[in-house]
Amino acid sequence: MPYMQDVTQIEPVPYPTLAAAQGAVGRESVRALRSPLDSTGGEAELPAWDLSDLFAGTEDPALAAALDQAAADSRAFQGKYAGTLAGASGDTLAEAIAAYERVEEVLGRIMSFGSLIFAGDALKPENGRFYQTLQERVTTISSDLLFFTLELNRLEDAVLEKKFSSKALARWRPWLRDLRVFRPHQLADDLEKLLHEKEVTGRSAWNRLFDETIATMTVPVAGEELTVSAALNQLSDSDRAKRAAAAEGVSEAFSSRSRLFSLITNTLAKDKEIIDNWRHYPRPGSYRNRSNMVEDEVVDALVAAVVESFPRLSHRYYAMKAKWLGLEKLKHWDRNAPLPNEDDRTIPWPEAVQQVLGSYASFSPRLAEVGKRFFDSPWIDAGLRPGKASGAFAHPTVPSAHPYLLLNYHGKARDVMTLAHELGHGVHQVMAAEQGYLLSGTPLTLAETASVFGEMLTFRGLLEAEKDPKRRRLLLAGKVEDMLNTVVRQIAFYRFETLLHDERRKGEISADRIGEIWMQVQTESLGPAFDFTPDYSVYWAYIPHFVHSPFYVYAYAFGDCLVNALYGVFQEGGIPDFEQKYLDLLKAGGTLRHKELLAPFGLDASNPAFWRKGLDVIAGFIDELEAAE
Question: Contact at 8 Å (CB) between 320 and 626?
């Protein structure tokens, strides 16, 4: 994929499309839609994005003209270059790649616009139709471009290497390097074209069914009908009765649709198995690892390290949390419960912005300077409204434009951390954009670097400023919970996917059996402090990553552990010019692999000690919490 979006939402495809309605909201109660307070006690006006930097609107003549021009350019491109690449000079091949990039960037701009329109309000039927129509049109147009990457991958290594004597082609070496990772898994041209064109009626159609189902769902909670997003948000309420009621409502809503969600899951898993078998991927997660430009063995080492650390991380922490809450056992709706005496105040949006930018500036004025552009321009949509996609993401669009951030800002401390996270993505995307459309895309495992680093900067800033021991403990506990959600929970998700896809190869799996697998991984990951009620067995159904981006979730743990190790090096102070090296890492985009990017910091992800170093940071925070008891 040319240009990386926030992977909390996205499946990599040939151009940046947004699985925008993952967990998208439906109707909200009036209370759920209230905006956080501003500094004067009134409701704050949260920013909304303006997409006119892409196109003026869905009826913009420039959009229709761009589609027509892209179609003509694609046909001309195919007519000029198809069947000629083996005999082309290096300079000619470089010209062809540059021409290919220009067309792809136009298609990327179009799909970015459509997906962001859909993310803004998935309840409007016209937005869904608009997005689907664009997908279909762009798929048809890009069919004329499909030959190019297929023909490039048919070139023998020795033939291609000779062409690199051209200085112009040398610029594209990283893109060609990553493209050729998939060479052993490439099918015949007619099969590739068939799979490409059927995508809109295959996996993409099932993705859309999932999105629109979630978008139109309501959850009964204490006499109110809430959206999925609003109900899930109540699982963090300070009132245990409200958490339990929300959990019951979520279970009821998803249990009543378990046949549909299990059908979607089974169909997509079987679809993946068929394609994986044709492409000769050794196991279900192999395609994702190739896309992430990371070896299967490195992922295995990460997963093994985290699983081995469950007892010293999540099991240990949640035993403490049960004690703090005065409970013998935690229920699943207690996992994200606020701690006693936790500051439940609403943080006004301007204060959140100041906290995040100030933390960025304390490390690097350049980072803060780039970040400030998002607040000075209408590049952020942070309000709460029906139909809007839940969660948060950063969508880079294309280098000739700029990224957009989507948040649902409730004004809590975790929302401030989410802002720091998504802004990190946005800054990364801005800085990598100088590489151009094809070379700026960052593998998912590295795409989390700037976001998690931004979170860590913000957290450290808050922690260092806090002198009260009790409030400091609360900050530490909140950070530990976020890290457990990022590392332990995501690896548990990865384990769930692995077990599910392996079992699906033996036949269709019932909803009850999927629930059993879910309960197995939750029990082993969260530990004996929990007493899981049977209704929790359906909670796999709302996780959008399983539908939109199979086996993606480990990238969160990869990014968190990577940043923990990277931040540890920064704190130790042994790396000269750390700030500039870090900025260079962001600017590199997709031109370098993880080994090359981490080498200036003395880090190596293939070394098991690397993962232990990252996990030790979490364990150290838990040590500090234990010592404070």
Answer: yes
**pTM for this model (two decimals):** 0.81
Helix (H, G, I), strand (E, B) or coil at 510: coil
CA angle 374, 424, 23 (to 5 degrees): 90
Cβ atoms of residues 485 and 448 within 8 Å: no
DSSP notation for 193-210: HHHHHHGGGTHHHHHHHH
Please check whether residue 28 is in contact with residue 420, taking contact to mean a CB–CB distance below 8 angstroms. no
Task: Kindly state the helix (H) or strand (E) to which residue 619 belongs, with its residue range.
Answer: helix 608-627
> How many degrees, rounded to 5, is the angle at CA 548 between CA 498 and CA 246?
85
Q: How many CA atoms lie within 13 A of 532 on its CB side?
A: 20
Number of H helices, E strands in the chain: 28, 5
Pairing of strands 224-226, 219-221: antiparallel
- The Cα–Cα gap between 181 and 187 comes to 14
Bridge partners of 394, per DSSP, are 405
Please give the Cα distance from 46 to 28 (Å, whole number).
Answer: 17
Sign of CA dihedral 450, 451, 455, 461: positive
Amino acid identity of residue 212, one-letter, is E
Interatomic CA distance for residues 347 and 258, integer angstroms: 37
Contact present, 439 and 101 (Cβ < 8 Å): no
Q: Which residues of 22-57 are buried (b: 16+ CB within 10 A; e: fewer)?
A: bbbbbbbeeebeebbbbeeeeebebbebebebbbee
- Percent of residues in the chain assigned helix, strand, coil, to nearest 5: 65, 5, 30
Contact 614, 565 (CB under 8 A): yes
Torsion sign (Cα): 252, 256, 259, 262: negative
* 508 close to 516: Cβ distance less than 8 angstroms: no
d(CA 423, CA 401): 16
Are 374 and 426 spatial neighbours (Cβ–Cβ below 8 Å)?
yes
Task: Kindly state the tokens that stand for 138.
Answer: 């762009």
Which pairs count as long-range contacts for 368-376, CB under 8 Å and 24+ apart, including other chains? 370/427, 370/430, 370/431, 371/423, 371/426, 371/427, 373/402, 373/430, 374/403, 374/405, 374/423, 374/426, 375/47
- Please, what are the averages of pLDDT over each run of 10 residues along the chain (629 residues)? 31 28 24 42 77 97 98 98 96 98 97 96 92 94 94 94 95 94 89 88 91 90 90 91 96 96 97 95 92 88 94 97 96 93 82 96 97 98 89 93 95 90 96 96 85 92 85 89 94 97 97 97 97 96 92 90 89 90 95 90 85 91 89
